[in-house]
Each structure stands twice: as C-alpha cells, then as structure tokens.
Amino acid sequence: MKIVNIVIAIAAGLIVLLGYFFNSPGLHELRSPLLDWAVTLSGIAGLVAILNLVFGVHLKRLRENHPKKGFSVVILISFAVTLIAGVFLSPASEGFQKLVTRVQVPIESSLMAVLAITLVLAALKILQRHRNWMGFVFFLSVIFFLVLNSGVLAFTSEIPFLRDILSGLHQIPVAGARGILLGIALGSLATGIRVLIGTDRPYNG
Amino acid sequence: MADIRCLICNRVNDSSAEHCWYCNTILPKPTGPLTQKEREKLANLKKKIAGAPNPDPEPHGDAPQKTPPESPAEEEVPDWLARIRRLKQAEDQGPTSGKPDWIEEEQPDWLAKLSQPAAEDTPNPHDAANRVAESKKPALDESLRIRNLPRETDEEQEFITNLLKPTPPIGEEDSANSSNGQLEPLQEDRVDDQSGQEFPAPEGPNDEDFLDVEDLLSDKENVRSDQKTVQESEQVLSVPTGKDLPFPLFVDNLPDWLSTEETETKQPQDTGDNEDDFAGEIPERKIEKGRLPAWLQSLRPGVTGSIEKISSETAQVREDDGVLAGIAGTLPGTDLSGRVLKTGDFTQELRVSAAQQKNAELFQSLLQPTREPKAVSADQNTAAPSEKLLRLFITILILLAVITPILAPGISAIIPVLFPTEVVNTLGTVQTLPTEKPVLVSAHFEAGLAGELNWASQPVLKHLVTRGVPLALTSTNVVGFAILQDMVTQAISGDPAYAKDKKVMDLGYLPGGAIGMGALVNDPLGTLPFTTDLQPVREHPSLGSLNSLSDFGALIILTDNPEFARTWVEQVDGGEADLPLLAVVSAQAAPLLHPYFASGQINGYVAGMSGALYYEMLTMRAGSATARFSAYQLSLLLVAVLIFAGGVVSLILAAPRPAKKKEAG
Amino acid sequence: MTAERMLGFVVVLFTAAGIGFFSLKQIRAQFPALIRKIPPIARLKRAIGLSVEDGSRVHVSLGSPGLTEPASTSALVGLSTLHRVGQLSSTSDQPPVCTSGEGIFALLSKDVLRGVAVETNTYESYDPDQGWLTGITPFSYALGAMEVISDPIVKTNILVGNFGAEAALLSSAAERRQTFTLAASHSLVGQAIFLATSRDVLLGEELYALPAYLNYRPAHLASLRVQDILRFIVGAALLAGTLLRALGVL
Amino acid sequence: MRINSEVIWLVISFILTLMVFSYLLGDNAFFRFASGLLIGVAAGYFTVVIIYQVLITRLVVPLMQGSTLTLVPLFLSGLLLLKLSPRLSQLGSPAMALLVGVGAAVAVGGTVLGTLFGQVKGALSFFDPIAGASGSMALRIVEGIIFLVGTLATLAYFHFGARERRKGEGRRRLATISVVLGKVFIAITLGAVFAGVLTAAITALIERSDFIITTIMSMVR
Q1: pTM for this one?
Q2: What angle separates helix D29-50 from helix A69-89, to the nearest 10 degrees?
Q3: D98 and A41 in contact (C-beta within 8 Å)?
Q4: Minimal CA separation from A148 to chain B, in Å
Q5: More confident call, B277 vs D121
Q6: Are residues B149 and B157 in contact, defined by beta-carbon separation less than 8 angstroms?
Q7: Alpha helices in A22-67 (DSSP H)
Q8: Chain B: residue nearest C143 by CA?
Q9: Contact B298, B350 (CB under 8 A)
Q10: Nearest in space to B462 (alpha carbons), one of B433, B435, B430, B436
Q11: B354-401 per-position pLDDT tens digit
Q12: What is the pLDDT of residue B35?
C-alpha cells in the first residue's frame, strides 16, 4: 500500500511540475485534470477535517463529559444552525451571508482590535526578550515606521534632502524582504523536491 | 558397599546411583575413609550414646527395642548415617511403636494400615498376610508413599481426601505426637485462606526421620484441627536444630532466618509427667519467641480471640442415641454442641508500621494518576498584579486615544500635502478604464481585517461605481466573497443610478489558490462557469463574451496577505495577460508590495487608512478615512511613544549597576 | 520553452541531484556536514527532554497554509518536525498533539502521529484525535489552538507553519502560561509578530532547517548543503546582473 | 427605529463586539462563547460553500453532464471520507498522496518561477541603465548600493555551513560583516512589517470603536 502511495505522489508531482517548464500539449492534457482533481480534493479534505472537528473532537467531548464541554456545545449548535441555514438559503442569499458579515466579521475584527493592545504590551518587552544588537535595531525600526505610517512626517516630502533620506529608508525593508524571501524560496524548493523524490512521505505516516 | 537408601522414598538404590531411581532425589554420597576430625566426633558421639538413657522409651508392652546390628562399615560411617541406621532399627522393631496400645487393639485393620507409615518398602517376609491385604489396597498407598509424584488428577485428589479424613478419637492426637520424641507429620487439612477449599496438606514423608520444617511452620500457622489441644496458638513448636536434623543437607537450604532459629541443641528431656503438655515427650521449656522478619511479622494474622479451650473428654462413651445406639465399643461420637470451633480469624488487615505507612504514601503520591484536564482559562493569570495594572493602564490609554477624536471631531490631524505616487497612479488608472469592459475584483482577506480593508477600498469602489464600470467579484478564500459583496453593496448605496443586478456579477469562491488563479488567467469561463446562485456566466450580458483575462478592463486585488498579491502578479505575468493590475491592501502588506510597484509589475496600490485618505483627498469625496484619520494618527503616535518608553525602561532595568558593585567591592 | 523556464528546470534538477548526492553514505562519511549553531533549536531539544521527563505534552501547530500556496511547504516541514518530536518523546506517556487550520494538513498530521505510534511501539497510547483541525479560518484556528496551549499538560509549543496576524493570539497565550515556545513562520507578517512576542524565534529560512537540526533524516542535512550552494549561485547572479544592468549591457 | 432584520443583526454584532472586547479584562465566559460561535459559524459556512462551489459544481454537475473522467475525483473523494474512521483511514492515503504530490509540485514551480526568479528580476530591475534613471543620480546609486548590499547580506545571514575553527580563532572579517549587516537589514524589515501589523490592528480598533459609538448613539437617538 505504501509503495502505491509513493508512486502516486511522485508521478502526479512530476507531471504537474514538468508542466511548468515544458509546454507540450500531451503534458497539458495530463496535467490539467490532475490540477482540477487536486483543487476538488483539497476542498473535500477541508470538509472531512471539519466533520472530524465536529464529530470526532467536540461531540466526543460531550460524551466524555470533558471539563470544556460548554465550549463544545456552543460550537456544535452554531455549526448546525449555519449548515441548515446555508443548505436551505444557498450561499448567494443575503440572509445567509449576514452570518458572515454580521457574526464572523464583528468577532474577528474585534479580535484584531484586541490584538492591537496585546501587540503593544508585547512590544514593550522587546528589549527584555532580545537583549542583543538585532533586538535593538528591531526596536528602533518599529518606532520609526510607526511614526512614518502615522503621516506626521508628511511635511518632509517638501524638503528634498529629507525626502531622499526617507525614500532611501523606504528601500531598506524592501531589500531585507527580498533577501528573506529568496532564502525562504530556497528552503521551500528543497522541501518540495524532497517530497517529489520520495524522501519525505507524510501521507504514509 | 551396601546399597544406598533414598532419603525421600526410602527405596534402595544402587551405590553408584546419584539420583534415586524412583523419585529422582539426590542420594547421599557413599562416604570415603573418615577424616581425623570425623573419627573424634564419632568417638564423642559414642561416649554420649553410651552414657545417655535410651531416647526411645519402650512402648508400653511392646517388644524391646533392638539396637540395629552395627555393620562393619559403621566405624567409618559418618554419625548422621549411623543415627539414621539406629533410628531405622528402632522403627523396625515395633511398627506400631509410638502408638498407644488402645489404638491398635480396637482399630480395625484397614485403619491401622492406613495410619501405618508407608515406610515399609523392604518386604517383611513374616507378614505375608499383610502383604496380601496390601496388594488388595488400591494403588492409593503407592501414591501416598511417593511424595514427589506429579500431582494427581482432581478425581484422585478427591478420592484421597475422603480416604485421608480419619476421625481419630479424642486424645489420640496427643499420643500421636508423643512417645518417640519426634513429631509425626500431622494429618491436617490446610484451609486455603482464600478459597476456603480444603485439600490435603502436602504429605510429609511418613518417614518420621525426616521433618519438613516448612510443614512444621505451616502447621503452626494454618493448623485447624478438630481435636488439637493448644494452649496458645503462638507457642512455637520446637524447631529441631540443624544438628538434630539427620540431614544437614537441608539445613543449608533453609532460609537464614529459619536456620538460625534454634542453635543450641537441647537434649530432649523426658518429662513424662505432664500428660497434658502438648507433644508429650517434647521437653517443656520456655521456647524463645521466633524472631520473624518484619514483613512476615506484619503479615501474621492478628489474633482476634484466643481459640477457646476445647476440653477433651477422655471417658469412654457408650452411644445411647443415634444410629449406633446401644452398640458398645463404637467410636464415641463427638459432641459438637459444646464445642465452639472458632477458627483463627484471618483478618486481612495488615499491621503496618509508621515507616511503612510513610513509604506507601510516598509511592501513592508518585504514582498519582495524570491530572484530569482542569478547565483552565486561557488567561491563567500567572502574571503579577503589577503586570495586570500595566496592562489596564495601557488599555485605557489606547482606548482614550482612539475614542476621544471620534467623540470630539474638532481635534485635527497633520494632513499630508503631497501624495504618494502609488496612490496617484491608482487614481489615474481607474480614471482611464473603459466603462464597457468589466473589472475583475479578486479578494483574499480574513474577516479580521475586513474593517480596515473596507475603509481602504470604499474610495476606489465608489470611484468605479460613479464611472459606471461593471464589476465581477470573486475571492480565493471562502469568507472573502461574502464580505466583498457587502462592501460593493455599501459602495453602490450612494449611487442609485448604478443597477446592481446588471452591473455586478458575483462569481463566488475560486478554489485552489494559485492553481485556481492560473486556471482563471487562461480560461475564466471554464474555471468559474456558474455564479453563486448557479446561473451560467456565459448568459450574462456583459460577461458572456469573455475568453481570457485580457478581456477584463483591469484586475483589482483586495488582500491582507502580500503572498497573494505576489501570486497574482506571477500568474498575470506568466499568462502574458495584458491588463492593468491594481491592489488595495492592508497596512501590514504595504512594505512587501512596494517592490512590485517599484518594478512596474503593479500599476498602483492603496495601502490601509492613509492610502484611503490620500485617495479621498484626490477624489475630493470625504469618507470614513477622512473622518477617522485624527484618531488613527493620535493612536499610532501614542503607541510609538509607549513602545519607546517601554524600551527605555527595559534598558534601565537591564543596565548593570556599576555604582552598587563598587560599594559592595 | 523560454530561457527562464529552461533555467528553472535546471535549478530543479540540480537541487534533486544535490540532495541525492549529499545523502549518500560515503559522501556523508567522507565529507561530514558542519552546520552553525541555532540557539533556539538547542533550547527546543532541551525542552522536549524536560517534557519527556515530567510527563507533559508537546504541542505542534502548523498554522493555516493552503495546500496550493507556496507556503504549503512550511506545513510539510511542520509535519516532519511532528514526526521527529513523536520519535524523541516516544518514551513519554503523553504523545505529542498537533493542531492546524487547514483540512489536508489536519488529516496528514493524523497519519504522521499514527505512523510514529506504530514505529515506536506505543500504539496503545495512540489517540486518533491527537491531530485535528481547530478552526477553518485563521482566527478561529487560533482560538481553538489557544485552548490546547492553555491545557496544563502542555509545557512545550512548536509553532511551525504559516501564520498571519493570528500569531499574536498564540504567542501571547503561550507567554501567559510561561511555557517554552519555538515559533517560525513562512510569512513575514508571522515572523515579525513572533520576533516581537516570543523569545525563541526562527527567522526566514531557518524554519526549513528545523528537521535537519533535529537530525531527522540524512536528506534534510543534504538539503541544507544544497541550499547553501544555491545561495552562493543566486548571490553571484545578483552581483553579476546588477553590474551588467547598471552598465546597460543586460 | 422600525424593528427589522437589519436592526436585529446590528444588535447581534454590537453584543458580539463587546463580548470579544471583554477579553481585555481577562479571559471569561463571554469571550469563550464568542470564540465557540466563531469556530462553529466559520466551519458551517465553509461546509456550505464547499458543498455548493466544489461538490456540486465540480463533481455533481460534470457527472450529470456525462463526464466519465469525473469518476476518478469522485472515487478519490470517497477514499478521503474513509479518513474519518481510525480503522479505515489508511485506505484514504492514495488520495492524500495525490494531494501532497501535486501540492509539492505547485509549490516548487511557483517558488522557482515566481519567487526565486521574480525576486532576482525585481532586484535587478532596480538598476535600470543609469542614463535613463529618474531622480538625482547620486540618490539612485546610493539606493542601489543599499538595496544590493541589503539583499546579499540578508541572504548570506542564513548560510548554514560552518567552518572548523581552532580554539580562539575568530570568524573571517567578511563573514562577520555580512552577518552583522544581515542582522541589521532583517531587523529593519521585520520592524517595518511589525509596524504595519500594529497599524492594521489599530485601524481595526478604531473601526470597532467607531462602530460601538455610532451604534450607541443611534440607539440613544
């Protein structure tokens, strides 16, 4: 069984990968259904994981009288109500979309708002956590870009010298970001290749 | 050399044999010439034997005890073998020696034979009649004699049990233990404490020469006998010392605590006087209490009540009622009514010393089952009170900085005069879009940043609506397209001339992330064939003629994740689609999107609230951004100051204190 | 086939060949790899050891990367880390637990945990619900993962995968419980938040080196060597390209 | 104010916002209720959208239209459903293998063509021929040097290989400089991104506060 899985993973991966570099029609014929199936299956995998979350984790907590049972009850009820409403009203209906815009958006936006204060509290201790050069530069950079974002330095755009300094300073995060993204690309490339040559096999457990 | 007799089953084996042929027991080695030391010992022993009275008193009226003829090899025979031979001869002289006469006279033959020790291996030619009787006896006796036979089957065991349940008349018990100074292996039934089943104790060999100390001990422990006269259950039987035992061989096997039990050899004194003493011939002496190991001592059942003294009647009783009424000479029925049989109450209670109790508790605490998961709040407050105060103080400060400008709109902010090029380019691109070509708006943001993106995108969407440009909405994450539809509805609300159902097409969720985007670039209608209410897109008036992405007027990306902006850039570049690319992003994505604008891959972008403010100022249409910019600016500056103060305090706290060190030094 | 795609194909072939070559036993024996120290990973190894000793649990969280996004490789690294942590803590009586915000990676984490249980003969203590999806959107996933982080039995958190702004919720919940947390994210937003809120952070490419530093498999160490070579090539290309571009040749 | 569905939804949003804001005072039952509600609603909404936009549009409709090729994803989807039962979950591994293989390929393809070449091209595009450069010449050169040094130093910082060093022997000078520069550029970049996140969070705080205040005022009026 394990060998079959490895063969499927490597074959499907190579067909899709070669499609990026070679434009042959035959390859395209093979590649597009694989991509289409992958899109469909990743949606179904999300569905299966949600069913496991609802029935495998939270319903089991109710049966086992878990101390956090109340939390699970709220999740199960809200899931059931949303599912029933969605099936009857269909995702395009305004009423059903209110569940997202009037329930999910307020809660997540408020969470993001609460994060503002949490992040400020965490930022106070940057120099306690990272007592080195990097921590100190990070600390100064946060303060500088906060002031820059607030727009109070807008007056500098009228003074050429200051404008150039600011423009130069604007380039530093971009240069750093490129370096970091290039590094991440190399790591991501190596990880993907390991899966395609069969060294990493998370599907086989 | 004479053959070697097996000590266990008393059978004669060939001298060369090491193990008994019958019962596989190790045979005592034939002795070589005596060493000097052994000769002296033998001599001392002889003096003793010559001086001592005859240890085996003449049984009443029985044939005189013959001393076994000394065989020539005796001088060299070690004392233990010599003693065995002597005892053997004593036994040969009187098979029923040691048994009170009255048992023999009245006892029917079958009972006499049963209680006869099965030692008689060597056929006694004189007793032919007995031999015939014995041959009729079931093979049972054989199994009795051979001790180490493999266990009988259950039926045989039961058969043996029934047979072996003699009911010796009262008093017989005493004499059984008496006379020859050796304890006969008691026929007792050991009660298995747990199951309450009765099964015969492992038969000691009937050869009185051998005393199995374990049995003795177990006798002492678990004795339950109907007629036993015990003064005190704790009286310890005299455990013959290693010296008395004929076979030192076994002494060595004894556990230390037993073998050191009785060291000095006590000459059995003939008391003879106190009939009632237990074990008659065993001299009455104060027996030192056995020093048992702590674990055994604690395991010993607490004696909850002394076994009542059972008085025994020794008078002859003629049965006057019951089945045997009127017949003389019957075995007296035991009068059960008077007897109270109370077994030693085997309490399960362990007597545990304080130290043991402490150890047990220690183990208990160590093996405590894993803690049940307690419902612990996510904010398990391990923070100190000062931390809470600081948290409260900063929360209040920031809320004040946010709410005050909202409640008092008079507070003005520093409004920038020049506008960033990315915003200006975005305005220019939207201004020049053809009104008949639809604009594809693709969203990928979480509900958490919907508020900020709503404020940032409203000016752009209102601008498109006022120009009457048709919109096609899609999103690459599930939540995105519901929020996007709400934003467009809000943007249209200010312009009644814009017909939403004609101008806006909701293509719904585009699954597959980068794959979906790639597919959309190459074949929009094939990738998104239906609207969210399952209407075919091909039949839509303005979208029906789409073949590729280039047929769209522009692509506007709404995202909080710079990765997605980059993925769209790569797909559009890769697909060689020729259409303007604009982005409305959150403030957190701005620093990472700027390089794509700088390199011309994106025509322009609006980032966060400040971007929206610039766009509103350029279109001279005040919106939420203009209204709330002062709160935005004030709170950002306050946060910057707070972080700076926090950093300075951290540096001060962390700074080494040279001054103090000097004083201390 | 454009030059760029041809070059891309060469890069992929070079990487695959490099990983295979440096994984060979003779090469490893002859040229043993010497890699720099990363203090947060050293502290992680110690924390895993302490967790095994005091019978507490290790919590691995993969974030919510989409399968078809470039960030999905960070979750694959998270799964390799989960497998290695499962092996390291097989003597503990509390197997690791794994949370994620993407359906497919939740199912893959179940397979990985079952594989570890079979491999280390601890199948009787394997619970199929040790790996699960705590929420389908990033914020709902973070709220569900906060419940696991606040469980008193969890003493070590490894946040390896793709995180956005919800990273702040996870790291502040972990800091409030004073538990050891190693945080690494594919996205720059997650890295910036972890750097501000956690002590032990892996930046940028260090996330992809985690399995190699936990000596998971030879191929991971070989990957680091290939990445170093590619790094050198990209740097040289940048320098050469810049000079040529500045001189107007390119 | 006429009681209609919009008002009801407004009140619900108002209450949920206050429940989440109560977390500032410490974890409490209100916050956990809102958390549970979010997890349940999000999961339910995702399930409905997947049923409509993936199951129906990509499996059911093509099957009804007679596409036999769609039987393969249908079969693989069935295998995925077996993952729900611990005993049969191994039968679902072929579908997982396909997903992982395709996912890895998309990641590698996107990384090489999109990120690796995209970033290198982007870095090079910064140095358009000097003659055509806009803005002051000196500034462009300075920015270009800053840009190049920053990218290379950051890239070099992540170098994993180390050199055997004798006791007391320090790092080579060039390596030391590149590591220090790399750290500075990384710290500045992450500082800018963190400031961006703070800005977005504060904007969300302003937006939610504005919503609470306007709702209270509309209720009062």
Answers
A1: 0.71
A2: 30
A3: yes
A4: 10
A5: D121
A6: no
A7: 25-51, 60-63
A8: B378
A9: yes
A10: B430
A11: 888 888 888 887 776 554 444 444 444 456 778 888 889 999 999 999
A12: 59
**pLDDT mean over C185-193:** 94
**Cα gap B181→B98, rounded to integer Å:** 9
D114 and B CB contact within 8 Å: yes
Q: Which DSSP helix (H) or strand (E) runs through C58?
A: strand C57-63
- State pLDDT tens for residues D102-117: 999 999 998 898 888 8
Q: Is the CB of residue C238 less than 8 Å from the CB of residue D120?
A: yes
Kindly determine whether residue D202 and residue B632, on different chains, have CB atoms separated by under 8 Å.
Answer: yes
Q: B596, D121 in Cβ contact below 8 A?
A: no
Helix (H/G/I), strand (E/B), else coil: A94? helix
What is the pLDDT at residue B195? 37
Using alpha carbons, select from D116, D176, D109 the residue that is nearest to residue C205.
D116
The set of chains that have 3 or more CB pairs under 8 A with A is B, C, D
Contact D49 B600 (CB under 8 A): no
Higher-scoring residue by pLDDT: B525, B130: B525
Write out chain A residues lying below 8 Å of C115, CB-based.
Answer: 204-205
Tell me which residue in A42, A107, A184 faces C104 most closely, judged by beta carbons: A42
Q: Is C26 helix (H, G, I), strand (E, B) or coil?
A: helix
Using the predicted structure, report yes or no on whether residue D158 has a pLDDT greater than 70: yes
pLDDT surpasses 90 at B43: no
Residue entry with tokens 């009783």: B317
Closest CA relative to residue D178, chosen from B536, B128, B448, C231: C231
The subunits that touch chain C, with at least 3 C-beta pairs less than 8 Å apart, are A, B, D
Report the residue of chain A nearest D205, measured CA to CA.
Answer: A113
Task: List chain C residues with CB under 8 Å of B589.
Answer: 189
- Report whether B351 contacts B310 (CB < 8 A): no
| C202 backbone dihedrals φ, ψ, rounded to 5° | -105, 125
Does B512 lie at the interface with D, CB-CB under 8 angstroms? no
pLDDT at residue A151 greater than cutoff 70? yes
* Residue C230 to chain D, least CA–CA distance (Å): 10
Band of pLDDT at residue B71, cut at 50, 70 and 90: very low
pLDDT tens digits, D6-51? 888 899 999 999 999 999 888 889 999 999 999 999 999 999 989 9
- Tokens 């005393």 belong to residue: B211
What are the pLDDT digits (tens) for B388-437? Answer: 888 899 999 999 999 998 888 777 777 777 788 889 999 999 999 988 88
DSSP per residue over B535-551, as a string? -BGGGSTTTTT--SGGG
Which of A39, A119, A202 minimises the CB distance to C76? Answer: A202
Query: Could you tell me which CATH class the domain C19-246 is placed in?
Result: alpha beta
Q: Is the pLDDT of residue B270 over 60?
A: no
Chain-wide mean pLDDT for chain B?
64
Q: Do B533 and A92 touch (CB under 8 A)?
A: yes
Cβ of A44 and D186 within 8 Å? Answer: no
Q: Between vectors from CA B308 to CA B305 and to CA B312, what angle results, nearest 5°?
A: 165
CA B581 centroid distance within chain: 65
End-to-end alpha carbon distance in chain B: 97
Helix (H) or strand (E) holding B557: strand B554-559
Q: Which residues contact C2 (CB under 8 A, 6 or more apart)?
A: none
Give the burial class of C175: count Cβ atoms within 10 A of its Cβ; 0-12 exposed, 13-18 middle, 19 or more buried.
buried
Query: Letter for the amino acid at D49?
Result: V
What tokens does A129 get? 């956590």
Binary contact (C195, A188; C-beta < 8 A)? no
CB contacts, 8 Å: D23 with chain B: 379
Chain B CB contacts of C173 under 8 Å are 378
Chain B environment of C190 (Cβ under 8 Å): none
CB contact under 8 A, A188 and C68: no
Is there a contact between B370 and C55 if contact means CB atoms under 8 Å apart? Answer: yes
